[in-house]
Amino acid sequence: MKIGAVIVLFNPFLAEAQALVNKVSGQVDALCVIDNSPRPSELNLDRANLSYHHFSSNIGIAAAQNVGLSDLCLAKCDRALLLDQDSLVDEYFVKSLSDQLSSAQTDNKRVIAIGPRIVCSFSEKLVKPRVQKELFVHEDFVCVTQIISSGMLIDLHQLELTGFKDERLFIDGVDHEWCWRARRKNFDVAIANNLYMVHRLGDARSKFAGITYKVGSPIRLYYQFRNILILTRRDYVPLYWKIRNILVMPIRFFANTFLQNNKKERLIFMVRGIWDGLRMRDGSYNDNW
After folding, report:
1. Residue 89: Cβ-neighbour burial (10 angstroms; 0-12, 13-18, 19+)
2. Rg (CA), the chain
3. Do residues 111 and 101 lie in contact, with contact meaning Cβ atoms separated by under 8 Å?
4. Closest residue by Cα to residue 216 from 277, 178, 164, 273
5. Phi-psi category of residue 265: left, alpha or beta, with phi > 0 → left and psi -120 to 50 → alpha
6. Tens-place pLDDT, residues 133-160
7. Residue 211 forms beta bridges with which residues?
8. Which residues touch 85 (CB under 8 Å, ≥6 apart)?
């Protein structure tokens, strides 16, 4: 069994990114680091099993992951682990997750990807989806509608059937869309019950009307609002996701317009995202504006 990993970087905290590279490189047969930062990240990447790609114009997380996945396919890897710079893993993470995928595929041969349970680095609590239901419960894993990309271990032998990540979305919704597309092809995605990974979701936290919500950079609002409007018109996207995100959009619009810093900048990005979403304009913000 040959396992590879893809780490995507964008203006990372260098110490954290270096620690992640050091931890992962010793656990995999091939490691591909994709750097979307304006300038190359100053990391020690001198390892025989590591390849590095730098895209100063930021090609987006979907395209970055596709570059890494393509590299790992060429390297004849059987499985690919996707990681963001905001994740923390231990020295046994890759083997444990791969063992969980093997176990899941023994019970359900249609499992194409598996991820860990996510612990939020802000709250230090287990992330529990409010709406998503577990579709199939097993002693060691549960099948779900979608999982996040960081920590996702993919069976590369099935990737040709599902396709690569959708580069038109650029960033937000890329992980979920791929899971929904895989399920449309009659594959399952799973979460390992007893494997955990600490991950930073968003840049900060705020509270409005008693609800704590993620706060990201202003430009992310463009992709979030636009991609909601794009994805709601795809028939394989779950109905609950469409309803929930459309209903929450006005609340998020209000909160980001009146309760956050950079109010004008956030407003502009949201309005442009809505405009492009309604017109089905995808790709990079810089290509559209």
Report:
1. buried
2. 18
3. yes
4. 273
5. alpha
6. 777 788 889 999 999 999 999 999 999 9
7. 208
8. 7, 8, 9, 10, 12, 13, 16, 17, 20
Nearest to residue 49, comparing CAs of 6, 86, 84, 19?
A: 6
Q: What is the pLDDT of residues 194-234, one digit of tens each?
A: 999 999 876 666 666 666 667 778 999 999 999 999 999 99
- Condensed to tens digits (0 to 9), the pLDDT of residues 62-115 reads 999 999 999 999 999 999 999 999 999 999 999 999 999 999 998 878 999 999
Give the pLDDT of residue 235.
Answer: 96
Residues 6+ apart with CB under 8 A from 34: 6, 7, 8, 9, 53, 55, 64, 65, 67, 68
Length of the chain: 289
CA nearest to 7, candidates 28, 26, 34? 34
Of 283, 218, 276, the C-alpha closest to 252 is 218
**C-alpha pair distances (Å), 151 with each of 5, 47, 80, 271:** 10, 22, 10, 32
The span from the CA of 88 to the CA of 70, in Å, is: 24
Burial of 13 (0-12, 13-18, 19+ CB in 10 A): exposed
Contacts of 130 (CB under 8 A, 6+ apart): none
pTM as predicted: 0.94
Bridge-based pairing of strands 30-35 and 3-9 is parallel
